Amino acid sequence: MPVSPTALAHAEDLADFVAASPSSYHAAEEVARRLEEVGFVRLDEEQAWPAQAGGRFVVVRDGAAIAWAVPADASATTASHIFGAHTDSPGFKLKPKPTTGARGWLQAGVEVYGGPLLNSWLDRELRLAGRLALADGRVVLADTGALLRLPQLAIHLDREANSGLALDKQLQTQPVWGLGEPSEEDLLGELAASVGVDAADIRGFDAVVADSARGAVFGKDDAFFASGRLDDLASVHAGVVALGALASSSLAGGAIPVLAAFDHEELGSASRSGAAGPFLEDVLVRVYAGLGADASEQRRAFAASWCLSSDVGHSVHPNYAHKHDPVVQPLLGSGPILKVNANQRYATDAVGAAAWAAWCETAGIASQEFVSNNGVPCGSTIGPITATRLGIRTVDVGIPILSMHSARELAGVSDLHDLARVAGAFFSA
Ligand code: ZN
Q: What residue numbers bound the domain in which 163 lies?
């Protein structure tokens, strides 16, 4: 069955979102930019915040962003409905003294970030993007566009390549970006030039490598969408679309919808902008203070709140079906997934499953379940971390994809749009 024009438009908009978000810092800014465009007010964590009722706000902390819309009739004990996701993806991050090279080639010194499928990064034109901290105190976002490539060794020089390719994480992951002598060139100069600043003014940098190719719809009936960073920009984007569509006036009597897009999930979330850090609590404490809540009322509001933690999960792979549970096999294109794990790698429980079913029903979408094969260790995500951190009831969900942690992952066009629809139902519940 062909996907709807609305779902196709949603996928194209996601392609724009990913193109604007090569790093977590860019993603957090893009969340804020899109929401400011529809009337959200950007707040500064170092400043006093206005009274909350009736307002729509967004705050950026490093590579994370939190946004919320407060019903005009919100009180000190109004619940929050928090849609959680993450802005970072596995890949490579620039090392200090990154300008390296050998034999007439210029190369970039990079560190592996998280758990990428290393081979998937070969033979692609790659961008270098991130933030630069300058001598004058400014922090600017920079993006070189296509600049680097990790060229695979020709099969003539490695006849065993097709019987199992193993890349050394240090020796064989340093991309090329030009020809010349490293002593005379400066990779940071490329980043500086992309934003019109002087490389000599750079005092610090956080720069990652991202695929430069744009996301694309393809396959029979336009069922597929391939892109870098679907894990987890597909969820961040769904949250932005759903939150941006809400007007505070329409929220009367409901919860406070919150979008929490954390950084550093791929590393375990332990940072000031990660889900294990204080960012969400810092924001919620101030939101409830702005509604006149005392400590007890704030805890009452937390007790009534929900977190819908959204991250990608595994669709069944036709060539590796034995890697999945023999019965529960979610399929790309058949709806978002509810993630279940007996060992609390996912926070979903019976009460959460029932709540999810209700939100899906309101949204008019189908959903599937995900559970691991017992012989394959289960991944985890921000859900159990936020639940442990704040005690807020949490459900782990997401969309089924293939090629997780590849430089270019594969999702279902209809699932992407359905995730935004159920996020909207959750926000308005
Ligand atoms: Zn993820």
A: 91-211
Q: Based on the domain organization, do 84 and 96 belong to the same domain?
A: no
Q: Which of 87, 177, 68, 86 is nearest to 131 (CA)?
A: 87
**pLDDT tens, position by position, 124-160:** 999 999 999 999 999 999 999 999 999 999 999 999 9
* Final residue in a domain of this structure, among 211, 244, 267: 211
User: The domain that contains 17 carries what CATH number?
Assistant: 3.40.630.10
CA 183 to ligand 1 centroid distance, Å: 38
User: If you measure from the C-alpha of residue 266 to the centroid of ligand 1, how many angstroms do you get, rounded to a whole number?
Assistant: 7
Rounded to an integer, what is the distance from CA 21 to the centroid of its chain? 10
| 345-382 pLDDT per residue, tens | 999 999 999 999 999 999 999 999 999 999 988 888 88
Q: Ligand 1 mean position to 260 CA, how many Å?
A: 14
